[in-house]
Specification:
The chain is α+β, with helices and mostly antiparallel strands. The strands form five sheets. Strands 6, 7, 8, 9, 10, 11, 12 and 13 form an eight-stranded mixed sheet that branches. The protein has a five-stranded mixed sheet with strand order 2-1-5-3-4, covered by helices on one side. A four-stranded antiparallel sheet has the order 14-15-25-24, with no helix packed on it. It is about 25% helix and about 30% strand. Helix 5 crosses helix 7 and helix 7 packs antiparallel against helix 8. Strand 12 and strand 13 form a beta hairpin.
Length: about 500
C-alpha cells in the first residue's frame, strides 16, 4: 500500500536530526483585527484565535478579569461604541451571564468575544470600587429566625433623584447608584451596621442586630461619615455628569422584629415594625425643613451626651396626626470621635506661618516609591525622588478623578485589578492616568498636554467638556526633612 513514509526523502545524520529538532515555524498572528480601548485610548490588534481579553492583556491594556476569563464574574465587560455588527452572537457562557444581569446588546464580555472586524470599546471596570460592585463572585446571605431587638434604623435618599436620572443614560444611572452604594455600604459595615435593602435610590440599614450596646452611636457615626463621603464624591459626579449630587438621612431607635424573609434561594434579613416606618418618614422630613440629617427623640436620648445637637424642629410626619420633635446632628463630640474612629493622631507643629504634619520616617520610602495619606477632606500622595520628597493632592485638577488608587500593587495583582496608574518621571513629572497631561511635582505647573482631542476633551470623557481651557495647576504641598521624619506643610 502506498504511504507517505515510503517515498519521503530521508536526510543523513546529523543534518536530519538537526532539522527534526527545530520547531516548525509558526506565523505570529493571522488576520489581525484593530480594536481601540477607552478610556485608555490604546489601539491593539486581536488575532483570529484570540478573545478580546487575551489580546488586551497581551498588549498591556488593563482589563479586569477576576475569574480568569471563564465568564463567571463579568468584570471584563466592555461597552461596544462602534462595530457592534462585527461582534458574533454570544456563546452559551456569555449568554447565561447576560441573561442573569440583563446586559444590553452593546455590553459584551471581553473574555468570550472574538471580534470579526474593527471595534471601538470602553472598559466598564476601571478601579477596585468598580471591581467590587460588578463582580459576580460572592457568597450566600445570612439567615435567622424572628426575634425582637432594639435597633437603630438608618434611611437615606438621594435629593431630586428623578430629575437627575432623566439627564443620564440608563447605564450611567446604574453606575452612579452602584458607585454611591459601594462607598456607603463600606461605611455602614465598618460601623457594624447591616444593609437591609436598596429601594431605587434609597438605602435602609440596621444597627444593633447583634446586640451591640453602642448601636445608636454607631448609626450616627455612619450617617456623619456618609455625608462627608458624599461631599467628597460631589466633584467626581459634577465632572462626570454635570450634576449636583446630595443625600438626606433619617435615623430612629426602637424595638423591631428581626428575621429572614423570602422564599427558597431569595431569603433576606430584614427589620419590621413602627421604628422602621418612622425612620423613613424622618428622612423625608429633611426636605421640608432644609436639613441633611435628622434623628428621632428616642435616638437623641441614647447619644445626647456624645454628640453636638443642633437645632430641633417640630413637624407633622407623613401619615401621622400629631407633631414630632426631630433633632439635627452637627458632629460627634471630639473625645467621642477620637475614641470611636481611633485614628492615630499625626504630630503637628506650627512653623514659619504654616501648619506642618509629620508624615512618616525618611527610610520608610525608597527612591521613587509613593504613599497615600488619608486626610479628612482629601488624600495626599507623597513621592520620594532621588534626594527629595514631593507631596500633592490625589486628584486630577481637570477631571477630579483619583491619580492613584489606595490598593497596593500586590493587592491589585491578587485581585486582578486594572493596573493603570499615573506615573512619575525621573525629573519629577507626574503623568496623569486619565488624559496623560504632565505636571511638575515641585511647582504643580502643567508641563504639557497630551491625548486631548481636537475639541479639547479627554478620550472617553467627552462629557466632562473642553478641559484644555482649564489650566488649573496640580495642588502641591511643601515637604521637608527634620529629625529623621518627612513633614508636609498644609497651610
Amino acid at each position: 500500500m502506498f504511504s507517505f513514509a515510503s517515498w519521503m526523502i530521508r536526510l543523513p545524520e546529523p543534518i536530519g536530526a538537526i532539522l527534526a529538532s527545530r520547531p516548525t515555524p509558526q506565523p505570529l498572528f493571522k488576520n489581525m483585527t484593530k480594536v481601540t480601548a477607552l478610556p485608555d485610548q490604546i489601539d491593539f490588534n486581536v488575532a483570529a484565535d484570540e478573545t478580546l481579553l487575551e489580546a488586551a492583556l497581551r498588549s498591556g491594556v488593563p482589563f479586569a478579569h477576576a475569574c480568569g476569563g471563564r465568564a463567571k464574574c463579568s468584570t471584563c465587560r466592555v461597552w461596544i461604541l462602534d462595530g457592534l455588527e462585527a461582534c458574533p452572537d454570544r456563546n452559551s457562557d456569555e449568554t447565561s451571564m447576560a441573561v442573569r444581569l440583563r446586559l444590553a446588546d452593546e455590553v459584551r464580555l471581553a473574555c468570550q468575544l472574538r471580534p470579526e472586524g474593527e471595534l471601538r470599546v470602553r472598559r466598564l471596570v476601571l478601579d477596585e470600587t468598580d471591581m467590587m460592585i460588578t463582580s459576580q463572585l460572592g457568597g450566600a446571605a445570612a439567615t435567622r429566625c424572628g426575634e425582637a431587638k432594639h435597633v437603630a434604623v438608618f434611611f437615606s435618599d438621594i435629593v431630586d433623584f428623578t430629575a437627575l436620572s432623566e439627564r443620564l443614560s440608563p447605564y450611567d444611572v446604574m453606575y452612579l447608584l452602584n458607585r454611591y452604594f459601594a462607598q456607603v455600604g463600606d461605611i455602614i459595615e465598618q460601623n457594624g451596621g447591616f444593609i437591609d435593602k436598596l429601594i431605587g435610590d434609597g438605602l435602609m440599614a440596621i444597627f444593633g442586630i447583634d446586640d451591640q450596646p453602642d448601636a445608636p452611636l454607631r448609626a450616627v457615626n455612619a450617617a456623619l461619615q456618609t455625608l462627608a463621603t458624599v461631599d467628597r464624591l460631589k466633584p467626581f459626579f459634577a465632572s462626570m455628569y454635570g450634576i449636583d449630587f446630595d443625600i438626606r438621612i433619617g435615623l430612629n431607635y426602637g424595638e423591631a422584629v428581626i428575621g429572614t424573609l423570602g422564599f427558597a434561594g431569595h431569603e433576606r434579613l430584614t427589620a419590621i415594625g413602627d421604628v422602621v416606618n418612622l425612620a423613613s418618614r424622618i428622612e423625608a422630613a429633611n426636605k421640608d425643613v432644609g436639613t441633611r440629617l435628622l434623628i428621632s427623640e428616642a435616638l437623641r436620648d441614647q447619644i445626647a451626651d456624645k454628640a453636638e445637637i443642633g437645632d430641633f424642629v417640630r413637624v407633622r410626619l407623613r401619615g401621622t396626626g400629631e407633631r414630632t420633635s426631630l433633632f439635627e446632628i452637627v458632629r460627634l463630640k471630639p473625645e467621642i470621635d477620637a475614641e470611636l474612629n481611633a485614628r492615630r493622631p499625626r504630630e503637628t507643629i506650627r512653623q514659619g506661618g504654616r501648619r506642618w504634619i509629620r508624615a512618616f520616617a525618611e527610610d520608610e520610602l525608597q527612591p521613587y516609591e509613593r504613599r497615600i495619606l488619608d486626610f479628612e477632606d482629601y488624600d495626599i500622595v507623597v513621592v520620594r525622588g532621588s534626594d527629595s520628597y514631593c507631596a500633592f493632592n490625589n486628584a486630577c485638577p481637570h477631571l477630579h478623578l483619583p491619580l492613584y488608587e489606595r490598593k497596593s500593587s500586590a493587592q491589585a495583582e491578587k485581585l486582578k485589578l486594572p493596573h493603570t496608574q499615573s506615573t512619575i518621571t525621573a525629573d519629577l513629572g507626574l503623568v496623569c492616568r486619565w488624559h496623560q497631561s504632565c505636571f511638575d511635582l515641585l511647582t504643580g505647573e502643567i508641563r504639557g498636554w497630551a491625548q486631548l482631542q481636537q475639541d479639547g476633551t479627554a478620550p472617553g470623557y467627552e462629557f466632562a467638556g473642553d478641559i484644555s481651557k482649564n489650566r488649573a495647576k496640580l495642588i502641591v504641598y511643601p515637604c521637608r526633612k527634620q529629625d529623621g521624619f518627612v513633614w508636609i506643610g498644609l497651610d
